[in-house]
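SEQUENCE AND FOLD
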Amino acid sequence: MRRNRQKLILDDAIGNIYRAALFLARSGKEKGLAETMLARALKVLTQLDFQPRQSLVDLKNRIKKAQNKKERLVLAELILDEYKKLAGIA
């Protein structure tokens, strides 16, 4: 039962990474929401002793610096790349 619960929590954290990319790509007004989703995902990954990738932390830190739509879309694509890597091992 405990293992199943951890799997659900991990799946939700990985889903938050996807959501972060979606919010970031959708609108510049949702940069804060994207950052929150990534922060939640990183917190859960750390709590589960799942080593979060440093690149994911770096991407979270770059969200605020995204100035225009092109930068947001590139950043969203990079976040999706991290999502794909994590979704493959979950």
